[in-house]
Amino acid sequence: MKIALMDSGIGLLPAAATVHRLRPDADLVLSSDPDSMPWGPRTPEDVTQRALACVRAAAAHRPDALIVACNTASVHALPALRAELEPGLPVIGTVPAIKPAAAGGGPVAIWATPATTGSPYQRRLISDYADGVTVTEVACPGLAEAVQWADSAAIDAAVADAAARTPRDIRALVLGCTHYELVADRIRAAVQPADAPPIALHASAGAVVAQALRRIGATPTPSGEAGPSALSDLPRGRLTVLLSGREAAMPEAALAYAEGRLLAAEPLARG
């Protein structure tokens, strides 16, 4: 089995690591476009063309499914990607986890890029899935870029800025950019009041990977009952990294995160 994932940058790592944990035997193709990152400020037409270039590079490796592990690409390019690749290649987009976050009754905050915050797309999701729930949209300028380059000081500054504009009484926080999942612990520490119940963080990687496996009729292996010993007996998949269409090693910045280190570790990288 081979699963491809695309993103503007290393925001695809959480979903890719989730695939690897559920199906360590799966080959992974990671296709991103760091040469043009960030995509948020670009026009929808530009995002679509860049997303198409990423998925075409990935599709050349003949995957069984392709995960669009990027909120911006899912917003602007998903119809074009599906029109080109489906039905031969299932394409699974990423949707912010607003529905499960709102199910707890709120208040809810959504952290997203400035381009996504307040967009018709995000407002429609709030209207559809969080009607009657207090929702605060929080733009996070510079956070995705800081995560992309593993700039710890810039991450702390962007997280602190967004946390200062996040209501203290929220019960749930939606991570509306896949890059943010890589620093979820730092975000949680910044928004969690010491005198309040734990805030629930809602990310997208788990749900999008589950949907991808369903689309191709695959199940997690090993099952939860198999135990750690079964993991050591499974064959490991091969990792292919494509940076702006060029086959390359895992970017150095990716190794700053547990997800990147997991995927770059032998024997996955060697295949």
From TrEMBL:
Please give the organism. Answer: Streptomyces milbemycinicus
Task: Tell me which PROSITE patterns the record gives.
Answer: ASP_GLU_RACEMASE_1 (PS00923)
| UniProt cross-references to InterPro entries, sorted A to Z | Asp/Glu/hydantoin_racemase, Asp/Glu_race, Asp/Glu_racemase_AS_1
Q: Which PANTHER family match?
A: GLUTAMATE RACEMASE
> Per its record, how is this protein called by name?
Glutamate racemase
Q: Which UniProt keywords apply?
A: Isomerase
Q: Which domain of life is it from?
A: Bacteria
